[in-house]
Amino acid sequence: MKNTIKYILSLVLMMVFFANAEKVSGQQAPLYSQYMFNKYLINPAVAGSEGYTAFNVLAREQWVGMKDAPFTHAICAQTRVSPRSWLGRLHQVRSRSSAASRMSKVGLGAYVFNDHRGLIDQTGIQLTYAYHLNLDEAQLSFGLSTMFIQYAVNKSKLQLDPDFNASDKLVDNSSLKMISPDFTFGAYYTTPEWYVGFSAAQLIQSALKFGNMGDAQFSQRRHYFLMGGYRFDINKQYSVEPSMLFKTTEQFNYQADLGARVYYKNEYWGGLAYRTGGAIIVTAGIRYDKFYFGYSFDYTLNKLQSYSYGSHELMVAYKFGMNIRQSKWLERY
């Protein structure tokens, strides 16, 4: 009967990697449609790159209308370390440096998320250190994150053959939770008009193993992200920003988001994008004082269209403090 449980857990892990048709084949990372408004979600080098302290909350409901559809909830914070803060003073003591400009190069970030996919719940926390170099009217940033993810199988949703009572006992006595550590590295270059970033996630490709069931063992796949965008002014009130995000694994299972947004007075925006694999993404948002509100709707073009009402994503951000470089162009939205 133990082999039965191994088989079940193997199927569960395979579902995590391959069942989600809106994601890259084999992708194990959460999917976001409003990545351009919080690039830190996919690139640790972005942490503190604006200079402000920012808090972001995001909720994504995928394939609305389908039973037990995936969803993702996330909250993150990032900041630029000020020489006047206690972190800045601590860094000055350790580095024996009193140069404020040196202190203004450090960025910190934290990110917590819960990603639900069928029988599997992923709960993760990420901590980030970033370093920013000023290059005249440009900025080059590097970031490194460490992440811990807990994978948990929902026992209540496992449906076993009623004739195998022993299997139920094995499930009850088995550990259906595990914690996987990993790292993400990123580089990010931005100018007054454009930006480009590259990041690599799940660098050590941790093995996934529930309890002592060696047959149900899989490895995380290394993921690569390349993003870029160019923003130009039409006049004093309107600007346009086309952007792209390319995602792939080492097996070249790839996915790309291509789109553009129109901004009005840097307070309102709307956009349209296409995701390879079959989805049209509509985004809209508004800025009120220090608050930012964004919404996106993914309209599925593949066979899932008959079973769901699309995917919804809501983003709320709050930014405060001063931009360390006092450069208005660093604020991308």
Summarize the model shown.
By secondary structure, the chain is mainly beta.
Largest sheet: 14 strands, antiparallel, barrel
Unreliable stretches: 7-27, 85-103, 324-329
Strand order of the largest sheet: 1-2-3-4-5-6-7-10-12-13-14-15-16-17
| Beta strand % | over 45%
Q: State the end-to-end CA separation.
A: 57 Å
Count of helical segments?
4
The counted number of beta strands is 17
Helix content: 10-25%
Encode the helix/strand succession as letters: HEEHHEEEHEEEEEEEEEEEE
| Gross geometry | globular
What does this structure look like?
This protein is globular. It is mainly beta and 333 residues long. Helix content is 12%, strand content 48%. The protein has a 14-stranded antiparallel β-barrel with strand order 1-2-3-4-5-6-7-10-12-13-14-15-16-17. Strands 8-9 form a two-stranded antiparallel sheet.
List keywords for this structure.
17 strands; two-stranded antiparallel ribbon; 14-stranded antiparallel barrel; mainly beta; about 325 residues
